[in-house]
Each structure stands twice: as C-alpha cells, then as structure tokens.
Amino acid sequence: MKMIDTHVMMQSLGLADLEVLAASGIQALIADAAGGMDYATSAGAAVNFFEQTLGGESKRAGEYSIRVFVIVGVKMTAIPPDYHDILDMLPQYLKRHEVVGLGEIGMEPNSKTCPDLKVQEEILRAELKLAHEFDKPVVLHLPGTERIDRINRYVKLIDDSGLDRNKAIIVHSDAETTKAIVAAQCMAGLSVLPMRRMTAEDAARI
To answer: Per-residue DSSP letters for 19-36?
Structure first.
C-alpha cells in the first residue's frame, strides 16, 4: 500500500524511524519545518530550521525513497522578537515547489516566547493572507483550552482573509471539536500521541 504521512517533525525522526516508515509503505511525507522552532530566538534561527528541513532532512529521507514536502510559518510557541522578518521571507518559500502550505501556525495562550494573543493574531492574519495569495492550505494549531471558541475565531479569521475554509486543517482535534470543525467546513486533524491523550482506537471511533 502506498501512503503519505501528512504531518511529521523531521528533526525527531531517527534512521530507524525512517526505515519503519518506508517499510510501512510511506512514499512521501509533509514535514513541519516550523515544528523544530521551539527554541528559535531569531528569524535567522527559524530560517535555519526551514533550510535544514528542505535540504539535509529531505536528503536523509530520500535515502529511504521517501519524498519530502514542507510547510513553513511562524510557530505560535516560538515567536522571536524579529518575527516580521520571517513573515517577509515567507513569500519566497511559498514559491518553492516543495513548500505545499503554511503550518503549524495559529494561536497558543501558553506560548512562552509571546503569550500576547493580539500579536499572535496579527501574525496569523498575515499568514492567512499569504495562504490566500499563494493558494496554499494552512495547518492550524488548536490549543488545549476554550477550544470551541478558538475554532470559531479561526473560522472568522479564515473568512476575513478570503481563504477557502476547506484549505484549513485544524489539528489536535478530539471527538467534540471534530464535529465543530467539520460543521465549519474545515478539515480536522487528529493527533495520535500520548501527550494528546489520543490513541489509534480513539481516532478510529471518531
């Protein structure tokens, strides 16, 4: 069976992981280049993560016949003081054929680098505008609190940007939030991870 893994943090995968993915039939994956930005202290550091994912990490996966596509953006939990520089550089990345969307982006009230939700929304508005301009999908982070309210706010921002709702994938969803996301005509992403308290059986039931 030929499959694609739609949300991967390449920096967390060892050679054994790539071997298992290949043996399981994974022929392509979408790597979250912003996912490695937990400790990005500057726009330059963020760009290094982007380039590492597009270059070395893609080459590493290619050794197992896995093709890598990439999503980029300003990660809500790793917003550096010069985040405007990242926003200014995103268009040049969105022109690259390997870059298939923006993500994982959004809002997180527990962000350690920038807990100001007004700033986070400003960044998200700019990214959604770019997604509409370049006709790219977005992967949106769903926080752990006030989840239905967050979904409703995302939908409002998506509509304001002109982006089609079906180009928004809202991740870290559960049974309740999946219903709200689907009702809003967006796509729900289920994170099957212990930290998300979501098992494969839970996902299958949803």
So the answer is: HHHHHTTEEEEEEEGGGG
